Task: structure prediction
Amino acid sequence: EVQLVESGGGLVQPGRSLRLSCTASGFTFGDYAMSWVRQAPGKGLEWVGFIRSKAYGGTTEYAASVKGRFTISRDDSKSIAYLQMNSLKTEDTAVYYCTRLRPYYMDVWGKGTTVTVSS
Amino acid sequence: EIVMTQSPATLSVSPGERATLSCRASQSVSSNLAWYQQKPGQAPRLLIYGASTRATGIPARFSGSGSGTEFTLTISSLQSEDFAVYYCQQYNNWPPVTFGQGTKVEIK
Result:
């Protein structure tokens, strides 16, 4: 079964950092680009960024709202994608979803992990 | 950045009736458009990609149409499990990938 499982969410103070992980199973992780999408409480979906597969350079793209603060990386040997979030703001509070890109629509979604930025 | 606008914001439909949801792009996205369904407390699920191709396991009552700037998602006969929020997403011009604000389909 194709599956994505996010972890690492929690409560963090403004200005601090947090790293989310997305563990994939059921498919050849290294063959796919991976993306992060977030959803603030009661709001719609917002694309955060994505990382291409190594075959396409493993390069990354980010939304303007997180560029320079968030970094996406991947470890194909472990089938894990990461979202490193620095200088967190209260407006980063959201459920963060990991998705597989096909490209560039999102055909597999994890259940999400909740990040709350508050003092 | 391409802005995606969905209408209506809320659609009230009786079970068994047809639902028609609209999505408009601020500039042409060709057929590079996807639709997702999200039920309360759940992650979104891919319904349609390429504007009209159903994803694996999606029932035939869901259909997508359109190209360029105007797109439609039609649910031919609403079932109880179809009451949810639906999002469109363009992937023609990126970054950024952009979503519409969603249409909530509720029971009339």
